[in-house]
Write a structure and sequence with these properties.
Belongs to the paxM FAD-dependent monooxygenase family. The chain has about 450 residues and is of the alpha/beta class. Helices cover about 40% and strands about 20% of the residues. It has an 8-stranded mixed sheet. Strands 8-2-1-12-19 form a 5-stranded parallel sheet. The structure holds flavin-adenine dinucleotide (FAD).
Length: about 450
Amino acid sequence: MDQNSQQKSLHIGLVGAGIGGLAAAIAIRLAGAEVTVLEAASELGEIGAGIQMTPNVSRLLIKWGIADIIGDNLVEVEEFNLRQQDGTKVGYTKMVPDMKKDLGHPYGTTLLSLNLQLMRDRWWVVHRAHLHSGLVEVAQSLGVKLLINSRVNSLDYSRKGPVTVTTEARNRHVFDLLIGSDGVNSVVRRTLFPDVRPTPPSTNSAYRAIVPYSRILKDPIAKTLIEKPTMEVWLSEKAYIITYPISGCKDLNLVLSHHTDNLVYNVEDVAVEDLRKQFEGYDLKIKRVIDMIPETQRWPLLVTALESWSSPEKNVVLMGDAAHSMVNHMAQGAATAMEDGAFIGRCIAEVVQNRLTLTQAVEIYEKERMPKARAKQHISFLNGAIWHLPAGPKQEARDGAMKEEMSGKKLSRSPNLYSDPRMLEQVYGYDAEQHADEAVRTFLQRREGVIDT
Ligand SMILES: Cc1cc2nc3c(=O)[nH]c(=O)nc-3n(C[C@H](O)[C@H](O)[C@H](O)COP(=O)(O)OP(=O)(O)OC[C@H]3O[C@@H](n4cnc5c(N)ncnc54)[C@H](O)[C@@H]3O)c2cc1C
């Protein structure tokens, strides 16, 4: 215990400085605990690709000062367009909400407050390297210790109390709580749950690619695609393409979802000609951009399903892809990892203030966050099924049901999950910190007998 402040001194260790681990490190440091992050790589960084930062986490980027650091490299998307393979528009979401229109809407109150929130919490797209370096800068300025070349090999967590981890270089670190933020192939998860293996739920995987605007602007047809900062999706049978600008509109990011003959478990190098062949016959605007892709890799889409996220003594806990990797079709993997970090940060703040024990904090985190992550896994899979529909009655029903949105009408349910009111509420309007505060309050009230158990 710290004599001056009566606050509890805690040292929390994180394995992995990815987007999730860094978000958790910031949140936990803000909670008043000492934080060390052990990262295997010899340099801090992220893969060369774009990422969507949806309103449920852009709020964290704003609050933690990361948005200011990333600055113009964050791109705000104005529109989201769903198209058939030939470019015909079939779905539309206005990404910057129009409050006046929503006032007159029958779902008024909820949507109005959600839209007010969405106006504050923006829908951004960004290069992962820019996001990652913003997270690193804020973490370091808060005093988080980031140790590179620190691949964790083993952990000793058998006794109640502190956990000892050993790195490849045989350095030992002792923490009051260890958080496994080490991604889909997590050593922390493999140690806790050796029988669990992340698996692709189908033969679906994704190519990732970036094409510079300077190249696209030279093509009179392709350049019409980048006149406005929009997110575009071309839907086709068992495949889709999504594009959006990154790096202050200097690059166009592409994700090309497709199926293969076999299940994909690892990142694969692919000849760019194979990709081009697979996406022939698309709208000429996007086809021309595809022909400019310099190189690509195929990424697996793995799902991790766990019954628990923690050790029996609650001194080790998982987060992010290590706990709940999901398919990418709602762009929620990293977002959910950041939510985990924000949530656990608020719970640890209560431990620092001596209102909860670490065990209780971990229990609240697991109880509340596991169902949220599971729901995101399901919704992500569902959106993949919607976007991959083959031509026929179901596809026609999907497109028909989204049609009225194109003239500005708000629907009570929509197969376009980017504008479906229930998704706005459950996914984009979700506030992880508020959720944590409410869960802690309920826990404390139950403990004090204020409310029934
Ligand atoms: C095609 C595609 C598109 C996607 N688009 C989006 C999107 O738009 N929005 C979104 O929110 N999500 C998206 N995702 C998902 C997102 O990329 C992941 O969910 C997210 O990166 C997971 O973050 P993480 O911090 O949990 O793990 P990771 O990013 O995997 O980070 C793990 C870190 O741990 C380190 N590490 C690993 N093992 C050890 C060890 N033994 N010791 C020390 N360090 C270790 C690694 O080096 C790494 O730095 C997409 C995924 C795919 C495949």
